[in-house]
Every structure is written in C-alpha cells, then in structure tokens.
Amino acid sequence: MWCVINLSLRPVHYASVSGGKDSFCMLNLILNNLDKYPLDMVVHFELEIDWGWSKRVIDEMQKRCEAAGITFLRIKPRKSWEELYEKYGFPNAHARWCNSEYKLDCKKQLETWIRQQNCRPVAYIGLCADEKARFKYKIGNWQDQECCYPLAEEGIEEWQILEWAKTEPIFEGYYKYFKRQGCMLCPFLSMKEMAYLLYIDEDMFNYMFDCIKETEERILREKGKIWLFKTVGADTIKHRVKNKWKSILEMEINQYSIFDYM
Ligand code: SF4
C-alpha cells in the first residue's frame, strides 16, 4: 500500500523514547548532533505497565531535555490498562489490544495533534543498523520520510548498545540479564522475565497471574473455548517461575555480584 506524504507541510521532528537502552542512546546522539537531526520535541508514550526502572530513565531523559530547552511530552492512552483489561481480559496472541488499543493510541493522539497544526510528523525511532528487516526506508535517505533511524544512520549495532547498557547504572542492572525491554505486564514475557518481575515486585507478579487465570476462566465461560496461558495454563507457569526460574535468575544475579567485587 502506498502512503502519500505531503512534503510541502512543515515537518515536526520528534524523538520517540521508551526508556530503554536504544532510545536513551538515540536521544544522546540526537542532542549531540542537532544540526544533522533537528529536534522539535521528545515524546514518551506513558504506560501504566512500564517497568519501574524505565520510568526512572524517562524522568532522567526529561531532565536532560528540559536543561537543553527541548520540549518533553508524555502522552497516556485514553483508556487505562485496567479499563481495557475489564473489557477484553489479559492480552494474548488472539487479543493483542495492549498494542493496538493501548500503546498505539498515544501515537494516534500525537499524530492527529501534529496534523491539526498543518505540519507533518517525522519520528526518530531507535532502530539499530542490524535491524534492517524493520526499516521503512533506505538508510542514508531519510530527508523526505515520515521517520528516521539515527542509530542506524550512524552504523550503530544493537550489541554495541547492549554492552554499554549492561554496566550503565541508569538501567539498574536490567540489561545484565535481558537484551530487550518490553512492557512489565506483557503476555510474551519469557520465564526469566517473569522471574524478574517476581524478584522485584511480588505483588505485581501475583496480580498478573490473577488476571491471566481470570481470563482463562472467562474465555471458557463466555466462549466455551479453552485458552491456556503459554499452552499449559497460569497455575503451571506460575509454579515453574516460583520454583525453578526465580532461583536461576538469582544465581545469575549472585554471579554478577561476585564479578562486581573482583
Ligand atoms: S511489549 Fe507486550 S504488553 Fe507491551 S505492547 Fe508489546 S505485546 Fe503488548
């Protein structure tokens, strides 16, 4: 499908930041190269289900932007996670409302607002040089595009950022154990990520499993279908996380602490 961009409209360049390692690195790159990457504002789509550490990264980014005189905008979805959960149940592969109706609602609000000013949005997105499959344009030719990937434009690869992020205190150790960050209440969390949630916030972990269990029961009651979380069900997964994966993660954490003292 062709997307027609009206190039006569004034572009509004915005950096979209999630609070993860790539967006943090991209923002630094842009702030140090404003001639090459003009910046009108920085935007964060603020979700209730963001990890606590990434919320603190966002606070720090906002401070740095404000010190540089750059507008920092936080946009929340118009409906809360709880409201959408009440309507659809816990998100899953068949009902991925967490993206379409929740996260992307922030983008919709932003782009509508920019277009109402008779401007066209140009988003800086933190994709790296080795994420080619996700590119919408050819690197080196972003001037007339609706998005730009500054990290890829500079030839920076994901592993380079990961190595740096592992020891960067602002990420509170998260990247010592994980390569990427998604949302905290995500249906696609790995076993180790669920163990991390249990490790840092047991109440939230229990809440997530209550929601998943309730959704399994609701689908059976309302649709007469069996849906089991990760094909074996909430109870089994919760048990495995508590009895196996939490100690695997703790062993890794302890291993890191030993090296930290060497
Ligand atoms: S990271 Fe997970 S919870 Fe967040 S929008 Fe994507 S699928 Fe949904």
Question: If you had to describe this structure to a student in words, what would you say it looks like?
Answer:
The chain is α/β, with parallel strands linked by helices and 262 residues long. The chain has two domains: 11-179, HUPs (Rossmann fold, 3-Layer(aba) Sandwich); 189-262, no CATH class. Helix content is 51%, strand content 10%. The chain has ten helices and five strands, in the order E-H-E-H-E-H-H-E-E-H-H-H-H-H-H. A five-stranded parallel sheet has the order 3-2-1-4-5, sandwiched between helices. Strand 1, helix 1 and strand 2 form a beta-alpha-beta unit. Helix 8 packs across helix 10. The longest helix is centred in the C-terminal third of the chain and has 28 residues, at 234-261. The protein is globular. It starts with 9 loop residues before the first strand and ends with a helix. The model has no long low-confidence stretch (mean pLDDT 93). Residues 91, 96, 98-99, 103, 182-183, 186, 188 line the site of iron/sulfur cluster.
User: How helical, in percent, are the residues?
Assistant: 40-55%
User: Domains counted in the coordinates: how many?
Assistant: 2
Order of helices and strands: EHEHEHHEEHHHHHH
Overall, the morphology is: globular
Tally of strands? 5
Measured between the Cα atoms of the first and last residue, the distance is 56 Å
Spatial ordering of strands, largest sheet: 3-2-1-4-5
Low-confidence stretches: none
CATH superfamily of the largest domain: HUPs
Return the CATH topology of the largest domain.
Rossmann fold
Mean pLDDT: 93
CATH architecture of the largest domain: 3-Layer(aba) Sandwich
Based on the structure, what is the oligomeric state of the protein chains? single chain
The first-level CATH class name of the largest domain: Alpha Beta
| Major β-sheet annotation | 5 strands, parallel
- The helix-and-strand class reads alpha/beta
C-alpha Rg (nearest Å): 20 Å
